[in-house]
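RETRY 2/3 - previous attempt timed out on the joint model. Re-submitting the same 478-residue input unchanged.
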Amino acid sequence: MPVPRDAASRRSGIPDATVARLPIYLRVLGAFAESGLPTVSSEGLAAAAGVGSAKLRKDLSHLGSYGTRGVGYDVEYLVYQISRALGLTQHYPVAIIGVGNLGHALANYAGFGTRGFQIAALVDADPRRAGEVIAGIEIRHLDELETIIKEHEISIGVIATPAAAAQDVCDRLVACGVTSVLNFAPTVLAVPESVDVRKVDLSIELQILAFHEQRKSAGLHGEPGVAVPDVVRTSVASA
Amino acid sequence: MPVPRDAASRRSGIPDATVARLPIYLRVLGAFAESGLPTVSSEGLAAAAGVGSAKLRKDLSHLGSYGTRGVGYDVEYLVYQISRALGLTQHYPVAIIGVGNLGHALANYAGFGTRGFQIAALVDADPRRAGEVIAGIEIRHLDELETIIKEHEISIGVIATPAAAAQDVCDRLVACGVTSVLNFAPTVLAVPESVDVRKVDLSIELQILAFHEQRKSAGLHGEPGVAVPDVVRTSVASA
DNA sequence: ATTTGTGAAGGGTTTCACAGCG
DNA sequence: CGCTGTGAAACCCTTCACAAAT
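RETRY 2/3 succeeded.
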């Protein structure tokens, strides 16, 4: 029974690492489009996105041949092709569970509504918050979770509850047919194989920074310092 | 001029991929410690952290040989060793710039204060918010940024401003000597090579989920489904 | 002349499988 | 006998360098 190498990237043909960068390209292209720029070279787009130009070209090559040699990429067309590859041509209704500080921030986050997503429901366990309206959406009680998910045909759930509640909420979401979960609670969620979970953990990111910070102060006099450019100064349509 | 392969991982000996997972192990070990469990096997710890046991052992082997063959790892001791490797034995003061919804959430986030970090300052551009107290810390105005950073000797900055302000704030932080930045604003920040930037982008995470979501509904009847366990159900000291 | 698209080379990461130690 | 620690293999991702196209 030969197990396939990687479920996600094998099914789609687009490597995971590339998929993770496409949204960045999309955002940068958006800025270029607003500037009225008709085309970009791989060099220009790569600089604005903070990656190497070869990597960018390889990434885009996985979607097809959408550039013109000697010219570059048509901005509008590339936006469309990347959007299509990411599946953003359809609209996804999402539910946010847990309307504490973080859930509140997420509900007001502009990036959610803009590209392919729509916050269809806010849910909280505190009955006193039911009825409250945030970002134009009424908060409903956790008891109604199953009803709400089915009502809006939600397949993406955002968990912004305390850690203690996260697994339980996740189980209920999965039971209603949710197949993608974005988890902000500091717990490892257990889910069936058919469900995708992505985790955002503020404290983990800080700890990774701390590690590098520590190394900096430790090695301030070792071997002759060789500069390794990682992110290079770029000036894009800044905003 | 031979460029070294990778700045971070070469200086420390610990691969980046491993560093990114150590905080997860640390959290899971914390739960085990509270349960009073004296030792864990690589299998047990790996299951709770959602990774394979071989990967976990290889990760830990980069820190040294802290396990006992035939027994497992001493929970308390491993917590200490991972903390030390990550540089969490010292305390890092951090500043949060931008106290909108997200900054507010971050200020109240328990994970910040607990492991090695302390929120030393909250800064906002709105003069009307100056003086307001959140999570026991008084908000100060952006004009005072330089003073505050130096006063508290802050080397880690958290940017939670709108995208338009992020690069400017970042430049000012770097000018004051901040060497690590955690960026929540949806922009690619340009910094000198000596500064580390990590980015958390809510909308990007959602777009990655959308990609996988799309592939699911597309291939619901292709080849005979082969199960690829990704995250397996585990029951740890749940909380 | 310029810039894309891509084989091929080079690293890094994960997985395997087992030797070695308790 | 159980479990860790680790070479070796397999895999994935990145980088290089250039042929192909406009």
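The radius of gyration of chain B is 21 Å. Closing ticket.
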